[in-house]
Specification:
The chain is mainly alpha-helical. The protein contains two helices and no strands. The two termini are 28 Å apart.
Length: 71
């Protein structure tokens, strides 16, 4: 079964948003010299924010991208 484009864009946004927000939080913690285990909860909170933002923005970006390629 093939998923509709909005569903795929939502999943893509969730994965990219969570990885981006969580990754940036982890990199900043490492640059500050803080052990990741000590700050895992804030990193996970930022990842959750990224999941939410990505899930909301993914379909909008995907639709805009498809619309641009159609023109």
């Amino acid at each position: 079964m093939r998923a509709d484009p909005t569903f795929r864009d939502t999943l893509r946004g969730i994965v990219l948003g969570g990885a981006l927000f969580g990754g940036v939080a982890a990199v900043q913690a490492m640059r500050a010299g803080v052990p990741l285990v000590a700050v895992i909860q804030p990193i996970l909170v930022f990842a959750l924010i990224g999941l939410t933002v990505g899930g909301l923005v993914g379909p909008m970006v995907g639709r805009a991208s498809r619309r641009r390629h159609e023109d």
